[in-house]
Amino acid sequence: MAQLSYGVRAIANIFRAVYPSGIVGSTRGRAFSSLAAEGENVSQNADDILVKDEDLPLYKRISRLGRQRLSVAPVLDEWLKKGHKLKKLEVEDIIKALRKFSRYKQALEVSEWMDGNRGLRLGLSDFAIRLDLIAKVRGISSAENYFKDLPEKAKNQKTYGALLNSYVGNKLTEKAEGLMVKIKESGFALKALPYNNMMTLYRALGQPEKVLSLIQDMKVDNILPDSFTYKIWMNSCADLSDINGVEKVLDELKHDGRFKYDWSIYSNLSAIYIKEGLIKKAQDALKETEHKIFMKKDRDAYKSLIIMHSKLGDKPKVYSVWKKFARVFPKRTNTDYICMLTALVKLGDIKGVEKCLKGWEYDGLSYDIRVPNVLIGAYLTEGRIKEAESLLQHAQKKGGKPDYKTWDMFVDGYLKQNQTDEAIGAMKKALEKVKYGQWQPEPGKALAILNLFEVSGNIDGAEDMFKRLRKVDHVNTDTYNSLIRTHIQAGKSPSQVFQRMELDKIEPNEETDRLLKW
Q1: Based on the number of CB atoms within 10 Å of its own CB, is 358 exposed (0-12), middle (13-18) or buried (19 or more)?
Q2: Do 38 and 64 contact (CB within 8 A), yes or no?
Q3: Residue 212 falls inside a structural domain
Q4: How far apart are the first and last CA of the chain?
Q5: Which residue, among 309, 299, 379, 301, has the nearest Cα to 334 in the 3D structure?
Q6: What is the spatial distance between Cα 243 and Cα 276, in angstroms, rounded to a whole number?
Q7: Nearest alpha-carbon partner for 246 in 274, 204, 218, 224
Q8: Cβ of 515: how many Cβ atoms within 10 Å?
């Protein structure tokens, strides 16, 4: 699982490196970057945007639409009708901001809206971005068709790269390998990016030896590795338990000389050492990380240090880096606080978490439920149900909206304390917060909830929970078996449940067969 998680993050990082989705260093960028912060307070009707908010700037109008609920095109059309100008760079900023906050459907809509507007013709980079969005919204097949229909001049390094990235993200190994051959034949494998993509795929599939093979290909082809290449190379050696190999990569990196101030490489190295239990080496790598971090302003760098020191159990260092962080970045963000709170939880410093949370509230940032969720989770892990409930009530009064993760944590907490009714209620609330395919409870947790109905033969309760699980695509052999057992416990025939199982094309197992013989 750790490898797969790394793979997803790595793919995102690779794509951002060439097709950045964030906005940096401009007034437009800072304006559109507020899309996520404001997007939760959405309008339910496009007319609200077009009429009631007539004086709002464009970025706020789009923000009010919410994530996937309303169309962006009418807002853009209305903006032009009002006599406003809209430059191509501004439209690109809108697309970038929407992508940054995973509002892919709306980003694609804006991209396609550009087709019918004079002066907003797509450039070569725009084709790559649209291909990526099509893959995310409509699927790989649609992305392949889009690529096929592109004019030849648009089939360049970026569009090939976008298609390869989509194959890698969906772990389509044969297609990715085949496309990589075409990229090489077309002369577009001039930099590390496509190799990095393939390395990410192989590592996600648990094939680190193929990463090392690709490194040799790069050397033969005279392709210079970049920072990401070195990191995934190190991690692949670590996957093979080859710490000597990791250190040889570090030697090559130092000899390379292009990454003297890249803190992320040493942070990555310290993580490898921590995992291998090489504490002294991890501490030395972190010292090198700190030296490079304090030479530049980088939020992620400081947060990486905080997390690494917490993994080493070094509380004084965690607080020391946080204080330096606060001096360098007086205006901290919600994610900054989440990082610090998470580190303090790992250290078992609950008093520190409580104090830090008060500091966050004092800063007056938007009330993002993910921040108090950290302490709520810590309370529930320790069995402090009352404190968790009290904090949730406090958060709601402050405007915080519990998400599925909030209620999922309460399910765990209630189950541990045998508060069955509360656990069932929390599971229902968690499931109400998500759409089909967005999230599923852990299989064991879902079965634990169904078992509560099973032991008492509560068919109505079990059927209600089963229907809720179906809405998030969490119906399988085990959940059906539980429903069958509930019917048997209640003295009812389970034959009707088995018929539904067949209609859902759920394969029975030995347990199913045994139950149906009762």
Answers
A1: exposed
A2: yes
A3: yes
A4: 39
A5: 299
A6: 9
A7: 274
A8: 18
281 and 254 assigned to the same domain? no
CA 191 to chain centre: 27
Q: What number is the average pLDDT over the span 400-421?
A: 97
Q: What are the tens digits of pLDDT across the range 454-482?
A: 999 999 999 999 999 999 989 999 999 99
HSE, side-chain direction, 13 A CA sphere, residue 330: 0
Cα 268 to Cα 251: distance, rounded to the nearest angstrom: 15
Mark whether 253 and 275 lie in a shared domain.
Answer: no
10 Å Cβ neighbour count for 16? 13
Same domain for 235 and 292?
no
Amino acid (one-letter) located at 83: G
Euclidean distance between CA atoms 380 and 373, whole angstroms? 10
Phi-psi region of 438 (alpha: psi -120 to 50; beta: other; left: phi over 0): alpha
Residue 150: C-alpha distances to residues 122, 154, 156, 169, 483 (Å)? 12, 6, 10, 22, 51
Q: For residues 270 and 286, is the Cβ–Cβ distance under 8 A?
A: yes
Residue 206 DSSP SS3: coil
Residue 156 domain-assigned? no
Give the whole-angstrom CA distance, residue 288 versus residue 292. Answer: 6
Task: Tell which of 259, 289, 307 closes a domain.
Answer: 259
231 is a domain residue: yes
Assess whether 217 and 250 both reside in one domain: yes
Tokens of 331: 């205006």
> Quick one: 253 and 297 in the same domain?
no
Task: Give the range of the structural domain holding residue 217, as residue numbers without chain letter.
Answer: 203-259
What number of residues does the chain have?
518
Is pTM, for the whole model, over 0.70?
yes
| Overall domain count for the chain | 2
Q: Report the interhelical angle of 227-239 vs 263-275 (nearest 10°).
A: 10
Q: Return d(Cα 338, Cα 334) in angstroms, integer.
A: 6
Q: 270 and 252 in one domain?
A: no
Identify which of 379, 386, 326 has the alpha carbon closest to the alpha carbon of residue 353.
379
Strand locations in 298-416, DSSP E?
none
For helices 315-328 and 299-311, the axis angle rounded to 10 degrees is 170
Domain shared by 254 and 299, yes or no:
no
In this predicted model, what pLDDT tens digit does every residue of 315-332 receive, in sequence order? 999 999 999 999 999 999
Token duo for residue 478: 């085990």
Return the amino acid letter for 200.
T
Question: 289 with 266: CB under 8 angstroms?
Answer: yes
Domain final position from 259, 281, 301 = 259
Number of Cα atoms under 13 Å in the Cβ half of residue 376: 25
pLDDT in tens, 423-444: 999 999 999 998 877 888 998 9
Do 350 and 382 form a contact (C-beta atoms < 8 A)? yes
Residue 356, in any domain of the structure: no
249 and 285 belong to one structural domain: no
